[in-house]
Specification:
The protein is an alpha/beta fold and about 400 residues long. Helices cover about 45% and strands about 15% of the residues. The structure holds pyridoxal-5'-phosphate. The site of pyridoxal-5'-phosphate (PLP) has 14 residues, from α5.
């Protein structure tokens, strides 16, 4: 008898042959700007902890006192007995932060996108999706069984052509709903979606518009509420999804919008209904993080200064770096093996930047994806630039 799992070993071997095998580094310290790997301190340049809040003393204190008050588990799903005051407080705080009528907490961004999209869209829906949208959006569309229209990255002309042709379909083939969905800050490139234009198209063609603010929440906008706030288009967006796990230094995600929308989601999103609620202490931490983000704009200013310093420094080394105001900066290498080789050379020099390969990014666009935070010091960033300059002379 052959082992039925042999097929998996074969598939794994194929991944290895393509140079795409993934493995994990172990962090032995807190998630600060410097972390310990194999007993050695290295500068962390690939975390989404953009404001450096993941080890903020006030958040640690909040976690400890909420755990003492509520315990460490919600014990059941929200709709059974896991709905605690910490969840509802976080929803209230999120709606205030995003200036929406209502908000709903999800266990993660992955849960939020798969749950929201598969609840809102069905086989009679046309979903228009940017080709570089996050995997959780793609999976949500797959689950929905909607008809998907993938448009070229940030290409609003293509979106309009698609909307027009969907509207012109004969009555029998007509799709009953249209949903435009996009990352607001693209997770692998750090550029920003053309939200103003997309909102106008949504209005013109009577489509629902949903954005994913995972990498914008806490980072962009006067109050840190995201790209929609920065671009002044919040009121034109029906569904704003975002995470507490990146700039807010916590865990979990939100969907913000109208009350009928969140009521509908509570009653239909399977990833909301069929899962144990987030631990209440995590919700308390997210609530406190929202307060910190609003109370301390200087954190965002420090982040902006570091973003500009690093982007300018990389330009002076010779990289072609865009002027986006985001902390995600990709150095496109192309070849997957070369990317991983550069990543391990950088680690050897005390700088941790993970290499990103397909399927996380399109074939031929393997890259070093650098992320900078408010917690990095100038000296750290100078060391990072020196290491990159040194290592990249090998490209
Ligand atoms: C754009 C985007 N959306 C959603 C997610 C998923 O969020 P979470 O990590 O909370 O599952 C991520 C990454 O983690 C992301 O980059």
């Amino acid at each position: 008898m052959t082992d039925p799992l042999d097929t998996l070993s074969g598939a794994l071997e194929e991944i290895k042959q393509k140079g795409l095998l993934r493995s994990m580094h172990t962090i032995e310290s807190m998630q600060g700007p410097v972390v310990k790997i194999n007993g050695r301190d290295v500068i962390l340049m690939c975390s989404n902890n953009y404001l450096g809040l993941a080890n903020h003393p006030e958040l640690i204190r909040t976690a400890a006192s909420a755990a003492r008050k509520y315990g460490v588990s919600a014990g059941a799903s929200r709709l059974i007995s896991g709905n605690m005051s910490a969840h509802e407080q976080l929803e209230h705080d999120t709606a205030g932060f995003k200036r929406t009528e209502s908000a709903l907490v999800f266990n993660s961004g992955y849960h939020a996108n798969t749950g929201i999209i598969s609840a809102v869209a069905d086989a009679d829906t046309a979903v228009l999706s940017d080709e570089l949208n996050h995997a959780s959006i793609i999976d949500g569309i797959r689950l929905s069984r909607a008809q998907v229209y993938i448009y070229k990255h940030r290409n609003v002309n293509m979106v309009e052509d698609m909307l027009r042709s969907i509207n012109n379909e004969s009555h029998d083939n007509k799709l009953s709903k249209k949903l435009i969905v996009t990352d607001s800050v693209f997770s692998m490139d750090g550029d920003i979606a053309p939200l103003k234009e997309l909102v106008m198209l949504a209005e013109k063609y009577n489509a629902i518009i949903m954005i994913d603010e995972a990498h914008a929440t806490g980072v962009l906008g006067k109050n840190g509420a995201g790209a929609a706030e920065m671009l002044g288009v919040s009121s034109g967006i029906h569904i704003q999804m975002g995470t507490f796990s990146k700039a807010l230094g916590s865990f979990g995600a939100y969907a913000a919008g109208s009350r009928p929308f969140t009521d509908f989601i509570i009653n239909s999103a399977r990833s909301f209904i069929f899962t144990t609620a987030l631990p209440p202490a995590v919700c308390a931490v997210s609530s406190k993080a929202i307060q910190l983000v609003q109370k301390h704009p200087e954190l965002r200013q420090k982040l902006t200064d570091n973003i500009n310093f690093l982007r300018n420094g990389l330009r002076s080394i010779g990289f072609n770096i865009a002027h986006d105001p985001t902390p995600i900066i990709s150095l496109i290498i192309g070849d997957a093996d070369k990317t991983m080789q550069l990543s391990s050379m950088l680690l050897g020099k005390g700088v941790f930047v993970s290499g990103i390969r397909p399927p996380s990014v399109p074939d031929g666009t393997s890259r070093l994806r650098l992320t900078v935070t408010a917690a990095h010091t100038r000296q750290m960033l100078i060391k990072v630039l020196d290491a990159i300059k040194n290592v990249c002379s090998f490209i």
